[in-house]
């Protein structure tokens, strides 16, 4: 089977020949293997962003440890809650005062609107940065921590910025959102890598993957549609020193423009609902 042309490549796909097969010249026997010439068309991709925001990651790691230490004082040994600022609004939002967080906020909001413009063709120039909702929290995973399969509701795009990782850091695993193609799970699970996808592995075949495992490098971030199911397994690689996987995760959405909104008689719902 011939390799498919990439959709993003402007090279036109080779259209299979429609010349009539010379039946008289054919030496094929009816029992010979004779599939038709074809191209594989890989359609309906899922768009994610991979990028890097290289700030002073050591200094940021220290600030994050300080925040999560405060959480540990409150949550004790509860490993479902003691590694993240997600559940404590006061500690979570105290992060907003760090200069590095302000820089991160500006960059990720600008990246988000550019993504929405480029990928979804949304006209967003009515927005200013304050019209973009950024809910962010930090986590310090030690050996006992993991996060089961979930997605992020009430959000348009979600992401994680990797503040401290090493080559043994547990990956983030994404499960294919294309339930129609994976419904029967007919492709054989082959754990494989792909050219031009560094630090990533795939479950499935090179034509139809069921999972993507991403092993992040320090200062990288991923941005994905919030509906995507993902998880972080426990670290199973023996560590030379105390295991730490430090991340900043976030949800993004924006104020929507509406029109056709002045029909009937206007009325405030304040105090009614
Ligand atoms: Fe998540």
Describe this structure in words.
- The chain has 4 helices and 10 strands.
- It has a 5-stranded antiparallel sheet, covered by helices on one side. The chain has a 5-stranded antiparallel sheet with strand order 3-9-5-7-6, with no helix packed on it.
- The chain has a domain at about 50-140 and about 160-165 and about 220-225 and about 245-255.
- The longest helix is centred in the middle third of the chain and has 22 residues, at about 100-120.
- It has about 270 residues and is an alpha+beta fold.
- The relative contact order is 0.18.
- It binds fe (ii) ion.
- Fe (ii) ion binds near residues 150, 152, 230 and 249.
Output the helix-strand order.
EHHHEEEEHEEEEE
- What's the gyration radius in Å? 24 Å
**Helix count, DSSP H or I runs of 4 or more residues:** 4
Assembly state of the chains shown: single chain
Question: Short summary of the structure?
Answer:
This protein has 273 residues and is α+β, with helices and mostly antiparallel strands.
Q: What's the layout of helices and strands?
A:
Blueprint: E1 49-52, H1 57-75, H2 89-94, H3 99-120, E2 132-141, E3 147-150, E4 157-164, E5 172-175, H4 179-182, E6 200-204, E7 209-214, E8 220-225, E9 230-232, E10 245-254
Antiparallel strand pairs: 1-8, 2-10, 3-9, 4-8, 4-10, 5-7, 5-9, 6-7
Fe (ii) ion (FE2) binds next to loops.
